[in-house]
Amino acid sequence: MKPTRNTMHILGMFSFKVFIIFIILSFISNPAFSPMKSYGTSDTSGNYNSLSNKKLSFIYDKTIASQTDPLNSTQIFEPEGVITDSQDNIYVNDIQTNEIKKYDRNGNFVTSWGNLVKDGLSLSHPHSSEIDGQGNFYITDQNNRRIMVLSSNGTLINTWGNDPNKVAQFMHPHVVAIDSEGNVYVSDRDLDDIKKFSSNGTLITFWGESGNATGQFEMPWDVAVDNLDNVYVPDYGNNRIQVFSNNGTYLKQWGSEGAGAGEFNHPAIIAFDKSQNLYVTDSDNHRIQIFLKNGTYLSEFGSEGKGEGEFVKPESITIDSAGRVYVADTTNNNLQRFVPIYR
């Protein structure tokens, strides 16, 4: 049967509407027209997040406890360390007030731990913290050259590091990490080594010396442990990441000096997300770089500046259970939070 003119008109209008809907959906789905302001570069290498098979980027979410007038003790003044616990509470090492400040997952102030004194010495320049499986806190009491141990409620339990055995002593304890068995690792920025202790401070082993050869360091800024208890060290002065077994056996390295993808200008602190992707504060490139554990570059975010999503020598980084990234920017005196997006 031959279609009538009216039927043809109806079919034509339907086709035109379908075409218009297709154009609108194409426009909306284009990331270039996203209404969210992104501070990430969505994976310029073409690599993808290992689990989502989508490109990983981040957007600025909020600044935690920023300084406002009048100033008060709940605010963050000079953050050098930041970690989160299993409940996504946030703990900030504020080196201006020599306190550990606790905030809930929404950034509301909970409490602070200060005036911590042992053997006549007060906590001084607490650069970093880590939490063990029992909820105890291990803090690098930097100016006193020791580790300070607190209970989950901030009660002082112990200090160690000023050992008569000079091999076990610190010159500049910088960052502390804990493996799955409760062993404690400390990077000593001035001695250029990594020391491994039992949870009570008994020295187990150590490795490293000054230099740029394999297994040598020029200011090991951090020490981080993955889910297999391998040890990652940002070799700050040599602009590389070195990886070791938990007894100090060298495994691999990556990185070189520069500002390109996978290059560093003073890598500082490492954090792992749930997928064991590795985030590095690339301090003097004013950005965060993200890698697979094997060193494959994934993406980056951040740029130099004082605005939202910008950094000046970002120092510390941590990631909560929701994948939200916290970056402590000591120079800008702030702690910024970023949320992940997958494209």
TrEMBL record:
Residue ranges of the TM segments: 7-28
Known EC number: 2.7.11.1
The keyword Iron-sulfur belongs to this UniProt entry's keyword annotation: no
Enzyme class, spelled out: transferase
SUPFAM superfamilies, alphabetized: Calcium-dependent phosphotriesterase
InterPro entries tied to this protein: 6-blade_b-propeller_TolB-like, NHL_repeat, TRIM-NHL_E3_ligases
Superkingdom of the source species: Archaea
Pfam families: DUF5128, NHL
Record's keyword annotation contains Hydrolase: no
One of the record's GO molecular function terms: zinc ion binding
Keywords carried by this UniProt record: Kinase, Membrane, Repeat, Transferase, Transmembrane, Transmembrane helix
Cross-referenced PANTHER family: E3 UBIQUITIN-PROTEIN LIGASE NHLRC1-RELATED (PTHR24104), PROTEIN LIN-41 (PTHR24104:SF25)
Protein name: Serine/threonine-protein kinase PknD
